[in-house]
Structure formats: structure tokens, C-alpha cells
Design a protein that fits this description.
By secondary structure, the protein is an alpha+beta fold. Helix content is 25%, strand content 31%. It has a 6-stranded mixed β-sheet, covered by helices on one side.
């Protein structure tokens, strides 16, 4: 079951992805957060590594819009299925999903899945570099549910 507060929180988080304001988006993440997406599948660890990645992503597509399509929740994880709309590129809308683990109202861990093709992110300078910044931290294992989120 998903309550209205969780739906509103997820909608506000998705809204923060719009407008090329990475600091607004970063406010949703815990200092010790972990983040993974198709550009950094092994994960980024810590808010500063995530900040560099998100800033590069948002700079590449400053006008993209994320809209919630479906929301589910179990005891610890929130699943958000979303649509990425690119107003300047008709026909390149993408569906994706993010699994979020919350702690004290902040995102502790996020894993997102989406199709990169045609988005110009595969070789985007800064995006891939930001993902590679975490190479020295890749020894961290089993981070998806090991950090003990509180489900908030």
C-alpha cells in the first residue's frame, strides 16, 4: 500500500530532476548515499560522487521532465516507475524505474534502470567521468539493502 505522503514525496523528488538545478535534487540524498544507474552500474558512494554525476546528467538535458507512472512499496524499498520526457526531442521519451531506500526522509540508496539509446548520455563528457570517480570505492559490496534504511 502506498500512502499519499509517499506519493507526494516521490512526485516532489521527480520534480527536482527538472530544471538543471542539481543542488535542489541533491537535497533529497543522505550524506552516505549509494547510487547506481546504467552509466555507473557498480555504483557511486557518498553525496559528493553522486553530486558530480547528477550535475553532469542534468547539464546534458536541462529541460527533461520526469513524471510518475506507478508507485509501489514494500517494507523498505519504494519502487517508482517513471516516464522521462524530453520536450526538445520529440519521440525520445523513455520509461524507467528507480528503487529507493529511504532513511529519515532522505534517499539512502537508489538504483535506476532506463534505456540510454538516443539520449546522448553514452559518451557525454562529465557524465562518464563522474561515474568513473567511484572506481576506488567499488570494493563496497552488497549495498542495495545492507545499509539499513528505515523505510521512511
Amino acid at each position: 500500500m502506498v500512502d499519499g505522503n509517499l506519493a507526494a514525496r516521490c512526485d516532489a523528488w521527480l520534480s527536482a530532476w527538472t530544471g538543471n538545478r542539481p543542488d535542489r535534487l541533491l537535497a533529497w540524498y543522505a550524506e552516505d548515499c549509494a547510487y547506481a544507474d546504467p552509466l555507473c552500474p557498480s555504483g557511486l558512494f557518498g553525496k559528493s560522487a553522486v553530486q558530480a554525476h547528477l550535475a553532469a546528467l542534468m547539464a546534458r538535458h536541462p529541460n527533461w521532465v520526469f513524471l510518475r507512472r506507478l508507485l509501489w512499496r514494500d517494507q523498505q524499498v519504494t519502487g517508482v516507475f517513471w516516464r522521462l520526457c524530453l520536450p526538445s526531442q520529440i519521440g525520445l521519451d523513455r520509461d524507467g524505474s528507480s528503487h529507493l531506500l529511504w532513511r529519515h526522509g532522505l534517499i539512502l540508496q537508489q538504483t535506476s534502470v532506463f534505456d540510454l539509446r538516443g539520449l546522448g548520455l553514452e559518451t557525454a563528457p562529465g557524465v562518464v567521468d563522474a561515474a568513473r570517480q567511484s572506481d576506488s570505492q567499488r570494493h563496497r559490496s552488497a549495498w542495495l539493502l545492507s545499509a539499513g534504511g528505515d523505510g521512511s
